[in-house]
Amino acid sequence: MRYTDEQxxxxxxxxxxxxxxxxxxxxxxxxxxxxxxxAVQRLxxxxxxxxxxxxxxxxxxxxxxxxxxxxxxxxxxxxxSMAS
Length: 84
What we know:
The chain is mainly alpha-helical. The chain has one domain. The protein is built from three helices and three strands; from the N terminus they run H-E-H-E-E-H. It has a three-stranded antiparallel β-sheet with strand order 1-3-2. A hairpin with a 2-residue loop joins strand 2 and strand 3. The relative contact order is 0.17. The model has no long low-confidence stretch (mean pLDDT 92).
């Protein structure tokens, strides 16, 4: 099973949230690309964010963002030690 383009766009939005603060949300402006606007709308429809243009993460959205950000961190190549 592969991620769909829509799921990738939703994960791209989720990784933009700052998980260090519950007081900081995001806003996807009407001038953003149509994929981002549609992704935020889907996240809102799924109950992951509080507003159709982003807003804050819900409890479920925070869990999803934590998982998305953890996966990104795990898949990011790390510099290997130069020590032999």
